[in-house]
Amino acid sequence: LHWEKQIRSSAQIRRKNGFSVLVTGAGGFVGTHVSLALNKRGDGVVGIDNFNDYYDPSLKKSRRNILRSKNVFIVEGDINDQRILAKLFEIVKFTHVMHLAAQAGVRYAMENPNSYVHSNIAGLVTLLEQCKSANPQPAIVWASSSSVYGLNDKVPFSEADRTDQPASLYAATKKAGEEITHTYNHIYGLSITGLRFFTVYGPWGRPDMAYFSFTRNILQGKPITVFRGKNGMDLARDFTYIDDIVKGCVASLDTASKSTGLGGKKKGPAPYRIYNLGNTSPVTVPVLVGILEKNLKIKAKKNVVDMPGNGDVPFTHANISLAQRELGYKPTMDLPTGLKKFVKWYLSYYGYNDGKGNSVNS
Ligand code: NAD
């Protein structure tokens, strides 16, 4: 395969820290940031992403260019492609897999249910099969989601709380992923850490998420649709800044290798862990809009409608004491400051709007 040579030089030779990490979904929002952080501290990183068009592939390609400028190589391929995975594992003895590739979003499942099965279930199994037969077996850290708490309304959510009421197919596939990884853990001894991310936001974010599409619409003078929950209640999310999530991911990789004795001998049975990575301070959507309006100095045209019953949950709120205790996870970014950073990135990436709906590149 044409990329073999590049990977040999980017992943193995540059590996100073002892970690070689395969990052799936490396062209994605979280994947890009995690890859950059690992690369910066001296880990060997190889990415894989299929650059699908769920959202603007040019944004994914721009992220890839940033990674390339730091000599992080991303293979363009699907995690269901067993041949590619086998080749990657043949070239690099991965110590860790950071599995972030997935079909995200809750509403997209209405039209494209099978893409969730393809990436979040079949792709996960293909990847786990590869890890199972690898020698050495890598420790796997992967992104589950706060959406597994579904219609549970007992907040804040703790890891042991019920997750048997998914509100979307997306949530169902993440929940299934937790069961599947658990099975590979106890049958094949794979070290598994599942991270339940809570609404991640920040520079290079995902255009399908509310804070991003609101920013775009407000700048273009277009209305935004704000969902309202039952009895007119505002929806709320535990918005978590990307840098805090990255720190949680990196700490999970470090913790996984401590207990599996990677680089040394295995100590006891391989661990299976689940952690909430959130911010512990939910903010309502109208408050989010207010912060964006202040940053953009433009009043939003709001269309307030009842939440459609096809995937969204009314609110999310993480209890992060387990991650705090075991990973040293401690989010530090407040939403106003984090959104300011996002808006700054947005304006520099897309250019600014002149107030008449014209976009002007800066
Ligand atoms: P993203 O869509 O930006 O990143 C996912 C990447 O995976 C994309 O670049 C996509 O092209 C790639 N991908 C999808 N299917 C693939 C396949 N079959 N083979 C290869 N590549 C594939 O999403 P993100 O926000 O960066 O999310 C990363 C992970 O975190 C996902 O697993 C997501 O479900 C999870 N998560 C994200 C959030 C959030 O708020 N961003 C919250 C909870 C969970």
List the helices and strands and how they pair.
Blueprint: H1 4-13, E1 20-24, H2 29-40, E2 44-49, H3 57-69, E3 73-76, H4 82-91, E4 96-99, H5 113-133, E5 139-145, H6 169-188, E6 192-197, E7 200-201, H7 210-219, E8 224-228, E9 236-237, E10 240-241, H8 242-260, E11 272-277, E12 283-284, H9 285-296, E13 302-306, H10 321-327, H11 335-350, E14 352-353, E15 359-360
Parallel strand pairs: 1-2, 1-4, 2-3, 4-5, 5-6, 6-11, 7-10, 8-13
Antiparallel strand pairs: 9-12, 14-15
Helix pairs in contact: 2-3, 2-8, 4-5, 5-6, 7-9, 9-11
Total of helices: 11
Number of structurally distinct domains: 2
Q: What form results from the Cα inertia axes?
A: globular
What share of residues are in beta strands? 15-25%
Q: What is the CATH superfamily classification of the largest domain?
A: NAD(P)-binding Rossmann-like Domain
Unreliable runs = none
Helix content: 40-55%
